[in-house]
Amino acid sequence: MMSPDDHRYMARALTLARRGLYGTDPNPRVGCVLVDNGAIVGEGWHERAGEAHAEVIALEAAGGRARGATAYVTLEPCCHHGRTAPCTDALLHAGIGRMVAAMPDPNPQVAGKGLKQLRDAGVIVDCGLLEAEARALNPGFIQRMTQGRPFVRVKLAMSLDGRTALASGESRWLTGEAARQDVQRLRARASAILTGIGTLLADDPNLNVRLPEAERQPLRVILDTTLCTPPTAQTLRLPGSVLIFTAVADAALHAPLQAAGAEIVVTPRAEQGLNLRAVMAELTRRECNEIHVECGPILAGALLQAGLLDELVVYMAPVLLGDKAHGLFQLPELARMSERTALEVVETRAVGRDWRLTLRSMSL
């Protein structure tokens, strides 16, 4: 049975892991705390892919005091050679006496093997402490490893009467400055920021992160079936990578956008627009964990119908736009209430003068 101290030290490890929220991609966010005789002797968190993992940083901080200590780690230590050496080897070399992991690593290259290696070497191993909190830190990494696709988060802003823009298309600014700043934090944690060509042509968005604490710019992704993206689009003028998915295979039409810095990926069509599963397969191949989507009702509806919308974040402004304004989703007409889409409210909170609703899909 875990003690109150075990919970306290794991909570500290989770706090450390959150410091890597914007930087570790495509790796998971991980924190580690080393404790000996009731005192923390070393701490660490993973900051960037290719750099030292949380366990190694904590071991370096502890030095010789790591021998016989308990390691609290938010994710099972890796036991394979990737961009860095296995953390299990470092932990065993340091002589830790006990390992407490919040959850197993979903990566098939690890998946329990790291904990087994430690047990086989005589280390006392416990796993599962504050697992729900640890999973919430890495929804994209876990889903990519277990389901073979990224975690898709769709952000929408709406009025109190469920409208996103006026009939003319005007939507700036529906929500307040605090909500817009909050969106920047959602963007910053994403592997990629994705939009559709309709939104690009209507708003000419930057699709970048404007936070001083965010050192990494996510991949910017445009879904453009007929290749209408203008080479003068604002997002093509900014630092960072831009990926355009299109059904147009004409190299001559690709050239102006490639000259502007975009990469073009030819993708199969679906009944309407592009094959969204093919898009997600390519983003998975590129090791994208979390996809942040800002789009109009057509793409939002298509993602929902394709079963690719994992989380919906809606900023609700205390204003009314009227029944001629645009809605959130373009979906087929329902004949019966039993056909409706059910959503589970995960969180509601005030953000400045607006409200933020976080929802997940659920079965009726």
Q: What is the radius of gyration? A: 23 Å
Biggest pleated-sheet summary = 9 strands, mixed
**Which quaternary structure do these chains form?**
single chain
Number of strands: 14
- Tally the helices: what do you get? 11
Helical content (DSSP H or I, runs of 4+): 25-40%
Superfamily at the CATH H level of the largest domain? Dihydrofolate Reductase, subunit A
Q: Encode the helix/strand succession as letters.
A: HEEHEHEHEHHEHEHEEHEHEHEEE
CATH topology of the largest domain: Dihydrofolate Reductase, subunit A
Provide the domain count. Answer: 2
Low-confidence sequence ranges: none
Report the structural category. alpha/beta
Strand coverage percent: 15-25%
What order do the strands of the largest sheet run in, or round the barrel if closed? 10-9-8-7-11-6-12-14-13
CATH class of the largest domain: Alpha Beta
Overall pLDDT confidence: 93
Tell me the CATH architecture of the largest domain: 3-Layer(aba) Sandwich
Categorize the overall geometry: globular
How far apart are the first and last residues' alpha carbons, in Å? 37 Å
How would you explain this protein's 3D organization?
By secondary structure, the protein is an alpha/beta fold. It folds into two domains: 4-137, Cytidine Deaminase, domain 2 (3-Layer(aba) Sandwich), CATH 3.40.140; 140-362, Dihydrofolate Reductase, subunit A, CATH 3.40.430. It contains eleven helices and 14 strands. The chain has helices spanning 4-17, 54-62, 87-94, 113-120, 131-137, 139-147, 177-188, 197-203, 251-259, 276-285, 297-305; strands spanning 31-36, 39-45, 70-73, 98-101, 124-127, 151-158, 192-196, 219-223, 242-246, 262-266, 290-294, 311-316, 342-351, 354-362. The strands form two sheets. The protein has a nine-stranded mixed β-sheet with strand order 10-9-8-7-11-6-12-14-13. Helix 9 (251-259) links the parallel strand 9 (242-246) and strand 10. The longest helix has 14 residues, at 4-17. The radius of gyration is 23 Å and the shape is globular. The chain starts with a helix and ends with a strand.
